[in-house]
Structures
1.
Amino acid sequence: MARLTAETVAQARELMSLYPDSRSALVPICHLAQAQEGWLNPEAMEHIAEIMELTPAEVLGTASFYEMLRTEPVGRYMVSVCTNIACLLNGGYELLEHAEERLDISVGATTPDGMFTIEEAECIAYCDRAPCLQVNHRFFGPVSDERFDTLVEDLASGRLDDDVPPHGVLCRVRREGGLAVPAEQVRAERAAADQARDERAAAAQAERS
Ligand code: FES
């Protein structure tokens, strides 16, 4: 378990400066923190609360609401097998059973080496490739039993490292050099826009009265 790294803290502060209410950055900051270890551990959530001047309970309350944020450890690869209607009709449940058998774990569990977690998923909007699945939100389909076995071997061997980063990493391309404009300029422009809006409202009110 770990608190946020200095780099993550800097990115978090940058995100907070983008919103009129810094609290709006909570979800993207949770994703940043999740990218560190693949899940949101309690220390990371406490650190987020500290930075954002929230309570740890508020961070946990938000994080536990969203399916993509995990407050329990998961494997390096989260395998989400769709069993919704198109996939169900094309062997989604059979694929899920095969996944359990191949990885020797039940749905919701993680392999002892920490590599794979399986979950049953609702429609992942890849219906024309049924039966399909996601690994860390990257799409694969249609997936036969043989294709699944190859996929597992490729992931375990690192052959897919360029396509499927570890769980929690949503984006590997980051803006270089922070904000394109200084945070003070963002704040000044926001204040000017607020003032202009208040003046328009006051003028409209004066016209009506
Ligand atoms: S039903 Fe499986 S992706 Fe839509």
2.
Amino acid sequence: MAELLEHLKPLVGEEHIAVREGVVVVSPKNTSEVAAVLGFADRHGVKVRPVGGRTKLGWGAACEAQIELSLLRLNRVVDHPWQDLTCTVQAGCTWQALEDTLARHGQFVALDALWPEKATVGGVCATNDSGALRHRYGSLRDQVLGMTIVLADGTIAKTGGRVVKNVAGYDLPKLMVGSMGTLAVITEVTFRLYSLPLHSRSFTVAADTAAKLAPLMQAIRDSHLAVQVLQMRGDASGFALDVEINAHPDAGQDAMLAEIVVKNGLSLQPGFWLYAERDKLWEHERLILKATIRPNDLASYAQEIVDKDGSFVAQSIGIVYAAFARDETTVRLAEEFRYHLDLQGGTSTVLKGNSEMDPVVGMSNIGPLMQAIKVQFDANNTLNPLVNQTSSQPAI
Ligand SMILES: Cc1cc2nc3c(=O)[nH]c(=O)nc-3n(C[C@H](O)[C@H](O)[C@H](O)COP(=O)(O)OP(=O)(O)OC[C@H]3O[C@@H](n4cnc5c(N)ncnc54)[C@H](O)[C@@H]3O)c2cc1C
């Protein structure tokens, strides 16, 4: 450890190195320093975990790293040419700081991040999350135009561009989004932007079974309504469908929505806090699963979750967050859900579980492909190695 500290001091300065729980936390100030640290680690067999706001380190590949590479000093919005509807931001900038800057020109990155005051741009990209806005704007991969990344051996690469139709060749940012810090360290991201919605209104439709909401969800999807959010949620008290419309009130869309709801034998109420519904799942110590399924299977899956005493929030495109009590049946429950999802062609991930759980559940059939890509980007397995691949001793 002492030797490692001595090697790192000239790369980032002594005051930007700390030791936390046996791990050396290094805080570089720019892309070049990130490259210097990675190049050193890669040459000496030292394992590195990139870290942003630390809100989500338990999710995905649990790795034993000797260095935590903190991106928190790379925290600037680099450029916001608002007339071009793009913005370039450093990876350690919090989502909230980014949103605040963009809002000054009435713009935003169309993604609703959880805990935006802590989560960083790099962490949000590395974990590929999205919330209710995904229904209207697509996934994070659709929002990213370009990136600066540092490969495991310290090579700096700029990939993608700053215009919506940018480069020929491979679209590497799409690979980086969701790579969980295993392929490269993201240091800068260029996003496409949208105007903040001016005329949003939220509504909720309640029902005692998920099956009653399924045809309504389908009818809304098939309609010409300007729907921004279509979210189902449920617990022991019942089920609800949240709908957010983004159209000028004079367009009469509220009345059109009400008509569709009534045709389906249900009634429309004003809705509140629909973006906060996901956060509530984390309010208690519970098992949390994320599942991706076919939209058509959503209602039956939702009903199964509630029948097993769980609660859930799901996007109509088929992304489900489910929470269950954490007790001795937890592991069995997760395995049961994984089994059902395998049959239906879906996947599931344990976001918050207990120590007996494999964090990435249901990914076995894509493992070899991911391994092959990992070897191409990180031959020495330096970045966020899986536990069973970590070499026990660094070479210094
Ligand atoms: C359970 C859960 C559900 C979430 N759901 C949503 C959602 O629905 N919508 C949404 O928008 N957000 C969602 N989030 C994202 C949330 O905003 C996270 O806080 C964010 O993704 C993580 O950012 P962080 O800076 O805390 O990253 P960290 O927790 O510090 O790191 C997360 C992972 O990213 C890697 N990493 C971090 N920075 C970099 C970098 N610069 N380069 C390469 N790898 C890096 C780390 O090594 C680690 O593997 C969710 C988070 C959690 C925990």
